[in-house]
UniProtKB/TrEMBL annotation:
Signal peptide: none annotated. This is Dehydratase. Residues 29-143 form the MaoC-like domain. Pfam families: MaoC_dehydratas. Coiled coil: none annotated.
Amino acid sequence: MENSNTQESTFNPDDFAIVPLRSFDELVVGEVFRAPSRTLTDAHASAFQTVSCDNHPIHYDVEYAKRFGHEAPVVHGLQVLAFTAPGATLLPHYFGNIFIAFLELSCNFLKEVHSGDTLYSSLTITDLTPKDNQGIVTTKVTVYNQKSELVLEGQHKYLLKR
């Protein structure tokens, strides 16, 4: 057993990386990065409503939602989009200090999401564009619900050092 003095002198915070760091050139088109599934609750909707200041009754009033043809209040679209945050997956952990910027995102909302739905999101590398000493990583983002329905799809782009 090592004594505590030896442990202190050999400690290196870099040894606590979740995954090994990779360079832009080590990334591969087709790689998939999944986030843990999450079941949305009314508490999530309330928290997002507080942060977004979006107080439209479609998001919290059952009778209002039903009057307009919805089975239940609809989860904020931006909250569903937040499920595509790269940090919910291991992808940015591979980037380490080569990450420069999150350049852009786009999405299409395809199905309603309601409290009680379980969401499954993933990011798939679809393109790697080298540009001198930098590179752009493009990912397809998807979010499915517990019924295997695609509720959101879109794209992210990140700028990395090479």
